[in-house]
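step: validate -> pass
step: tokenize input -> pass
step: predict -> running
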Amino acid sequence: MMVHTSETVRLKFFIDLLMHKRHPVMLVGTSGCGKSALLNEKLNSLPEEYAVCNVPFNFYTTSELLQRVLERPLEKKAGKNYAPPGNKKLVYFIDDINMPMVDQYGTVQPHTLIRQHMDYGHWYDRTKHTLKDIHNVQYVAAMNPTAGSFTINPRLQRHFSVLHFPSMESLNLIYSSLLDQHLKSTAMKFNPTLIRMTEPLVQAALQLHQKVTSTFMPTATKFHYIFNLRDLTNIFQGLLFCTGETVKAPIELLRCWLHETQRVYGDRLLEEKDLEILTKLQVDVTKKIFEELDEAEVMAKPNVFCHFARGIGEPRYLPIKTWDDLSAILQDALTTYNELNAAMNLVLFEDAMAHVCRGTELDQDREKKLDESPPPSQGKGPP
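step: predict -> pass
step: emit ->
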């Protein structure tokens, strides 16, 4: 679902004007911010006289591969002229334009091909070495400045009108709208006091996300420390599992948010000291925004939410009471499984039980991946 803000409406207005004049447009923003979604929404709404060709770039995209893709929707007209079929206008949508490899000469070959066309209106036939004049086409592009080669050649960039998005105000509005709609839903039956949690909870989420992205940077050994708006969205997606029956007080909703941040950020961290830093960031943000709540109660352990906290047959998103209670539930489920299948002698220590809880969240259409390290027929005891 696309949540429009004043900023996206402004961007759409300028994109409409620029595309109407066939002027190249480029949206710049971090991964997961909605650049491609916004442009796709625009391209899908174009009248029938337009055709769209998606051109996704990656590290291995070459000028030869790109030219094949660009020429695919074209047909030969008179002489050396090529254009879309009939009187159609063709829009090339280049996603991740800064992803292709930079060669030993500092050149990005696909960029050079596009720039040649923008400068001169043609490129060369790779077999006959003759000119091909390309007509009735235009470009829109999306770029993530934190990935790939980070920038593109100024000789290419000068052709585009570059628009950046989104701002922090837009993010606040987007996530506030999603959470507020859920908390105000009559079907969810939330306590009215929880509705007032929307604004401070979104502020806390945005502040923590900023701190996490600036604190945990990717390195050679921690190359997966890349946190973007998809992670922030996953946190709020987890909050949408809550209902009025499972969360009755503000502190319970806050603890659910802390659990989601631990799943999204903490599960990706490699070292114990990194987990300690994350906990400190959580405490700092919580104390700053939720001063009236008791810190000890908010940060009490265990803080694990799952869909079987009250039993396997009751799929409600609730916090576990104690590790012993969770162990009893899982042991009962394991016994039932062993009666019908080959026996599994699993050791249900705390980390193993927490891992099972993470796995159940994947079954709820969560956009995450789980690395099941031990073989399924074994268990490992604590070190």
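step: describe -> The longest strand covers residues 50-56.
step: cleanup -> pass
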